[in-house]
Amino acid sequence: MEIPSNINTSSFYFILMDLQGLEGAHSWTAIPICSIYVLSMLGNITIMYVVKTGPSLHTPMYLFLSMFSMADLGLSASTLPSMAAVFLLDQRKIEASTCFVQLFFIHTFSVIESAVLLAMAFDCCVAIWEPLRYATILTTKHIGTIGLTIVAHSFALHLPLPVLLGRLQFQPVSALSHSYCVHPDVLRLASSSTHVNSGFGLFVMLSTLGLDVILILLSYVLILKTVLNIASNTKCLKALNTCISHICAVLLFYTPVVSLSMIHHFRRKLPAHVYMLLSYLHFLLPPMLNPIVYSVKTKEIRVHILKMLHPKKL
User: Contact at 8 Å (CB) between 35 and 3?
Assistant: First the structure.
């Protein structure tokens, strides 16, 4: 992706920030940061490999899980370059055009991940609400169409971001709040009017993450309504158990976002490191923990991973 040539982004750059209070401890902070990235990459690649090589896992639930792992990988890969530069090389300077491209991919993959979570909620809803029609509603072709639509919509929706940012005026050198670029953080540093950018950013947020979380909640209302009508407690628990992993993934993804929003609106004077911590939790922990959650809570995934690790024993 390129910034249009008529936009001069070479006249200013941004300074990436380290963890507040730990600026002089790069050798120590680099260890957990690198460990998180390694675990994220290994975990999500393993999930994708297991789903691809396991014929019994070529079902809607696991195909959506594979998409979810792809989104996690994309999100990790989007934040990795600048964080590696800060924590491993102590390089804080980032060109404006590079920063704008990074924030484009960070926000795009965040929205893709949210949309896939919604698709997974729809999968759970159909499996419990319409079990007899499940195979005809969620065919492989339909799943592929859903995946392509999510990716195309997310990329198209965020294409204006770098262009709109490139038309703003900034100081020659501006310090960000994180070791990666995100739209609100860059926008606050502009020295010209940001009404258009703020309005567009709010529209994107409400029409993606905001709408997705509402639809996910509605899906679970339908699921609970259906499950409560099941006479057998055993069948009821079995039905709910199929959604436990997804519920954990939803909580991991949305809790930091909702917390940031609540803090921003109701307690504006909290220390800056609180905002930074929640931001890091949002971008770093879910890609690492999601594969672990699905490996522990999903028997089929766990069995296939054990077969892959110990083929002679299973």
Answer: no
